[in-house]
Write a structure and sequence with these properties.
With 394 residues, the protein is α+β, with helices and mostly antiparallel strands. Helix content is 34%, strand content 23%. A 6-stranded mixed sheet has the order 2-1-15-16-14-13. Helix 2 packs across helix 3 and helix 5 packs antiparallel against helix 7. It is elongated and about 85 Å long.
């Protein structure tokens, strides 16, 4: 990626920059476990039959990870979800294989952003001699039941105004785009904020890190009836979280953190706003090929190969260029939308077209043939990996 300022007949500067990964904790809290308690009787007072799991919610198509598990793990998923949502302890599981707990627990947490009070889990093995006869499960929680209820009510109050304006009656692209923009406009990137691993930091503090952004995006999309999964992995060697979203029947990746200019500036906010558009769409509904150029994916369950481009931002907004087209470029730069925003980002369908665009518009400064800034300057940034070019101060 390079950024700089194009001045009339003079290229002032061009500096190389890389988007930095987002560290959301040195270790995920998902995989905490209690040491085995050998010899503990399965007649312990803690060992009891749980209430029937709440099958209606996890069975919904909204929950991608659940449907990626086999039947046995789905049953354990429902048991764990029931325990976590009810803040229960010592819940017996229908397995004696502790090796499946990490994966199933991660699937529950990756499906359910509303479990913001969950920090991790513990388990207890019950043995008879050397034979494991049972496993009980307990969540570890950051809040009391009363605090969870109070926080949930405050979150709903925060979102009430937002959802009054959500375009739910239009196609799903419009809904996703509205909520993506709302999230970014109402959140600043901040590593120091409390609860930055869950949705409370976003909705109650207006500040978060990548996992908070991704879970908040997921929470809103699920509420709008759109399937969305939290995806975790690495970017630039650091842990990161983003989303897998099903839009109009096709799967795409979406990274709301990398869409926020305050993240690119390291959380300084105003510096980014003065240098680039506040919202970046380079990682808004992209393919597997596009996301894996910069993101390394951890898979608790198998993920789809995302190949659709119909609902990519640049395709939908008429900003996608298969070839260098002066007529189309002139129409874009002369549009009312660009005039009102003072900025524009275009995406190229191939590296050949992207290289040609950079050479013509930036290196040869032909941008001034389309935008009359005689004696003035135009700022720009180009992203080689996503093949996008942004101009502002237009």
């Amino acid at each position: 990626m390079r950024r700089g300022t194009v001045c009339w007949a003079v290229l002032i500067c061009s500096v190389a920059m890389l988007i930095q990964g987002c560290t959301f904790q040195e270790k995920l809290q998902y995989f905490l476990q209690e040491p085995k308690e050998s010899g503990q009787s399965d007649e312990s007072d803690e060992y009891y039959e749980p209430d029937p799991p709440k099958e209606d919610k996890p069975m919904s198509e909204l929950y991608y990870a659940y449907h990626g598990l086999d039947e046995e793990k789905q049953k354990i998923y429902l048991e764990i979800y029931d325990a976590l949502s009810g803040m229960k302890s010592g819940v017996p599981l229908s397995t004696v294989d502790k090796s499946v707990l990490d994966v199933v627990f991660a699937c529950v947490m990756n499906d359910h952003p509303e479990l913001f009070h969950v920090e991790g889990y513990q388990y207890t093995e019950y043995t008879l001699g050397s034979t494991i006869t049972g496993i009980t499960f307990s969540g570890t929680y950051s809040m009391t039941s009363a605090q969870v209820q109070q926080s949930a009510q405050r979150i709903e109050q925060k979102l009430e105004a937002c959802f009054q304006d959500v375009p739910l009656n239009e196609d799903e692209y419009s809904t996703v785009k509205y909520l993506y923009e709302w999230l970014i406009n109402n959140t600043e990137y901040d590593k120091t904020v409390e609860n930055n691993q869950n949705i409370c930091s976003v909705f109650l503090e207006g500040r978060s890190v990548c996992q908070g952004y991704a879970k908040a995006m997921q929470y809103m999309l699920q509420r709008a009836g759109i399937q969305c999964l939290l995806v975790t992995g690495f970017t630039n060697g650091e842990r990161h979280g983003w989303n897998l979203v099903r839009v109009n029947g096709a799967y795409y990746y979406l990274d709301p953190t990398w869409g926020d200019a305050s993240y690119a500036s390291g959380g300084t906010g105003s510096a980014a706003e003065g240098f680039a558009p506040a919202i970046n769409y380079d990682y808004f509904l992209v393919t597997t090929d596009e996301i894996t150029r910069t993101h390394s994916i951890e898979k608790a369950v198998e993920l789809p190969q995302c190949t659709a481009v119909d609902d990519n931002y640049f395709v939908r907004e008429g900003l996608y260029f298969e070839v260098y087209d002066e007529g189309k470029l002139a129409a874009v730069l002369d549009s009312e939308a660009v005039d009102a925003a003072g900025c524009v980002t275009i995406k190229c369908g191939s590296m050949e077209t992207y290289t040609q665009m950079v050479q013509i518009l930036i290196d040869s400064q032909k941008i001034f043939d389309f935008v009359d800034k005689r004696g003035e300057s135009i700022a720009y940034t180009s992203n080689d990996q996503q093949r996008t070019i942004s101009f502002w101060n237009l």
